[in-house]
Fold each of these.
Amino acid sequence: MSDPGSLATFLRVTWLVTRKDLTVEMRSREILYTTTFFAASCVLVFAFSFVRDGRPLDAAAAGILWIAIAFAGTLALGRTFERERVNETLHALMLAPSDRPAVYAGKLAGILVLLGAVEAVLVPLVALLFQAPLFAHPGHLALLLVVGTLGFAAVGTLFAAMLVRARSRDVLLPVLLYPITVPVIIAGVRGTAALIAPDAGGVAAARAWIGMLVFFDAVFVTLALWTFEAVMTE
Amino acid sequence: MNGFDFERLVVDDVSRHFGRRRALGRVSFTCEAGTVAGLLGPNGAGKSTLLSIIATLAAPTSGQVRYGTASAREAGPAIRARLGSLGHDLYLYPELTARENLEFFGRLYQVADPRARAREALERAGLAERADDAVSGFSRGMRQRLALERALIHEPRLLLLDEPFTGLDDGSAHALVGRLRLLRDARTIVLLTTHDLDIVDGLLDQAVFLRDGRVADVQRPVAGLRERYRQLVAGGGRA
């Protein structure tokens, strides 16, 4: 048995919470289906607006991809914590014999996996509807999506956990989340645009945006891990 | 703090305010190992707030709770490893099976063989035949029995129960009383809140009466529970 306050316990609890969340989701498929359907609907609506005579607006694809990710992410965050609220299971997780940020890390990892699955549908859909060469630099695009989604979900997981007992949590989550994650969304949009539009800087510019996202991620994840115990203790 | 244990729970001058409202005012009492203690009082007396503070889910505004020699601030994870809790909500995942719920919490608490422990717990709860059914299909009584096993899967030193008899039929309530007696024999500190005084009369070794967030009386040993409750809490006896 490892020390309850050790790194090994932290990682074990993180893994257990992530695995539990994914098992619950595999049983219901509720979050996966609703977020994917919602994100695909957004892209479809934008496609009707921004694609005329088979020609999309320049660089619209990058913005629409990240807006769809942000909307889907907000929906997934809300539902993930709603599940923990209904049966007060978040209390049970808070009682786990480890540092409480391990629960945050576990929830964050579960949301990242879910959003990764949504993005696996979204990216080809946006590429198809907006005739965007999203797969011209697959490695760089994948890196942008990973670091951008991490930045968005890091803040979102903290806020969703904080708001879990608030009566108006569904309204408050996007109101708090979007202003703070604007830098992440902008970096994601500009980085993606650099990869798909020849005059937007190319791979070099995308790398610069990826570097900025890594910096945001480091700041957001550190702050969230640091504050989680305090904000979750009543 | 690995292997941390304690033989005494000390609630020392604990107060808790929510804004200007006082939920608890200078509450003090001690529970020794092998004690079943009741936190008794009307709705709004501060029982659940006190349980949350003892469970390390909430922090006191002033005062402290000591688990042996340690406080939650000094040794939160180690204390939680020795603490089991069952709230009015049962802390179970309805999408998971009974076995999966128990194994998940067993692993969370690092019990030696979570599968074997879950199997034993299911047999104790009389749910061995429903082990692989989703909890969402269980009755309230079945969930309550499973939730108690969940709270006990790591053999905690301190067990906190918030209204554990709610929704239980007579048979289940008496089975729970029997289980709590066994826990007392195993030197567990059981601290429970309840309004079912008839059920716990004869079970409690200690009764802490709360009124308006303050301790109205501490009885040990407990005698004439309902009458004392009526005097102190309902009738507004001495504080």
Amino acid sequence: MTDVYPSREAPSRLPEPRVAASVATSTNSHLEIDAVTKNFGPQAVLKGVNLSVAKGGTTAIVGPSGSGKTTLLRLIAGFEHPDTGSISLNGSKVAGENAWVPAHKRHVGYVAQDGALFPHLTVGQNISFGLDATQLPGGRRGVKSRVGELLEMVSLDPAMAKRRPHQLSGGQQQRVALARALARKPALMLLDEPFSALDAGLRVATRRAVAQVLKDAGVTTILVTHDQAEALSFADQVAVMRGGKLAQIGNPFVVYTRPADRATAEFLGDAVILDAWMEGSLATCSLGGIPVRRPPAQGRVQLMLRPEQIRISEDGPIRGTVVDTDYFGPETTVRLQLPVPPVLAAGAIPDHRYPGGGEIITIRHWNASIARPGTELRLRVVGEAVAFPMDEQP
Amino acid sequence: MTNKLAVPGPSGDLTTDTTTAGRGKRPRPPFGVSVVSIIAVLIALFSLVPLAYVVFMTASTGWDTAMALIFRPRVGELLLNTVLLTVVTVPLCLVLGVGGAWLVERTSLVGRKWWAVLLAAPLAIPAFVNSYAWVSAVPSLGGLWSGVLIATLSYFPLVYIPAAATLSRLDPAIEQSAASLGLGAWRAFFRVVLPQLRIAMTGGGLLVALHLLAEYGAFAMIRFDTFTTAIMVQYQSTFNGTAGNMLASVLVFLCLILLLVEVRSRGSARYARIGSGAQARALRLPLHAYQLPAQLSLIALTGLAFGLPLTFVLRWIVAGGPEIWAAEEFMPALLQTLAYGLAAAVATTVVAFPMAYLAVRRPGWFSKSLELSNYITSSMPGIVVGLAFVTVSIRMVPSMYQTSALLIAAYVLLFLPRALVNIRSGLSQAPKELDEAAQVLGKPPLLAFLRVTLRLTAPAAAGGAALVFLGIVNELTATLLLSPNGTRTLATEFWSKSSEIDYAGAAPYALLMILISAPMTYLLFQQSKKVAGQ
């Protein structure tokens, strides 16, 4: 941050001090969004968004539909004006007080959800739409060879240039849209849920291919998606958006394993939430004592574990009774009831050190046959848990 | 995160009000939408001139005079004629139109591809040409039932075309569901298919009814008096009398009632196809023993509606011999018709564009109210538009009276709805995302609009312009009232010849109108298949 934005300190764009570990590590910021708000009529869509994207990095903005993520992307592209706040590209303001650079002068790439290919043009004409033949060496032939190059870059046959968009499959259309956006060699690429219209298998393959192309080209990329798995696998920085604000920004591993709040935890994946008692850095709950790094509070807390942290093992210290199971093929979802502590079972007044008891949790296991309803299994907890203060309700 | 005070800027107070904050010098709303809005409002106001004229005339006549002129036996007689004509003709058109559409789209009718086009063909014959042919065939024709006969044969395609388009788009799965729920073919048709045709039937029925109220030539030819013919007679005798104006206000009132009836009966249910996946092919009901009766009735219908008028036009041409083809007579009429048609079609398309743009790209109360004004305008009969333009131009801009500009303005107003419907569906094929994609690829907004949105809308706009052209070629009433001295269009020439009982002399004009209309009617038929379901 030192050379470009000496005055801006990293903590100012973090939601909470306790996720300080998730700061973008680059010193070279490409895109800087500062306190941006946007209303559509009476509805506040963005309520003060701060985001910094490093040069060459990939950032995924993930959030439920209606959280404002597409609006944010459209602000960056220049399709909409922010109400307050500013947006800077490479250190120069493109939107904000007394500054406005229209979309066609921002030099960013944009791939829309359905590709938005021009139906009246061929694939080749689509790709060369933004190219200026007079600027390319070789004029028209230069354009043609550049189109071929771009088609190869997105793993499509250059012979496809003569086809019409409606003759392509969904995945091919998305690749053409990407090639079209890459044609002008933008330094920043914006992807608005470009994979969501594709079916599951094609989706993963297209996402991988696109990520590779963008990485090879060294293009700074921002992906908007509502699919948390896509966000986690695509980006090296994940920004979780909720209710018009960024709830957490950090690398995928950090936001998944150490979410800032319960809603973020539950949005990013399945979570086991248990009442617990925090003393020092040890939380006591129905799964026994579990270590917590940097607990936010002492006393009664809510404890979050990922289901894969709870393993079935013969010598595990915790017992759980199988309630029912759901078979998915590669794995089985097992619902378990945790035991009621003996003191509580005996009818004693609930003790603050045993806040839980009898909860039903959901875990996963590869072996369906060991989990028949009524079976008692032994469990072991792996790794640390995350604690949230009690007042946080989802 | 909500640290709004962090926003730097010379005007700190702006941050307190987020709705108006920071408007400053920013270009908002984007890309001249406000200019488009102003143009659209001006067009809408212009299109309300006929209605305003009628209201103003009625109000300025004075209560007693107006009452005396409206509540008199002559008006009662006209009202009875018009109402009887409507309540008999509209149901007949519905039965013929829906029946024909069902035979073509849902049964094993032999030669259904030909029948599909033939049933739309009568639309290529202007109603007054149809009337002329029938009077030639049966000279004693006259009165209500002759009016019903000619109007039904001329206008049933207005129901047939939307009904056939809807049926061809209607997912046969719902009929199959009905069958699986134990309904036979007949009960399935009445309980499942017919309700789905509701929009096509109310829309087509409204169109037929509005044509009945607006038609002049066809009814004047058989001496059947409706409001429109009576207003024309008044106009020709007293030019701009109060009596004629009061008749016009009753006529407009009837048109508005029709609009209300249509809105009410259209309902608000959803008729679009629900769910995804490809639509199955329709199963056709085998006609078996009914094949012959079906063929015979279609032959009779198209024979009476299309064959008979064409035959009599050709007979008059043969009877008239070569002397009726005096080039110096019909060439000016043909050229003037083409010129007016082209000029007004282009003008209408240009004028319709801003309204269509707002309706598609900026939906809201504003574009809704523009649509409403357009809907009202679409019901205004040519005679009322003509009267309004004559009076307004004489009183306010006398230099405009009897100019071709005024006539073109009247055409624009009369046929604006046709162009609007087409451009709107074309624009919805060109989503704004494509415009944005062009901008982000470095094209300035205006260039992006021209190269993407305008280019993609062009085919639909051309289709709309063709339909406007078709309307103008066959327009008689407003042309008679507004055309400059010496103007001769095919329709007015035909009319003046046939009014002088020079039926042979009128025949070439009738034939030319049919020849020009035929390809346009085919285009209309083709387009309806695409637009249905939207």
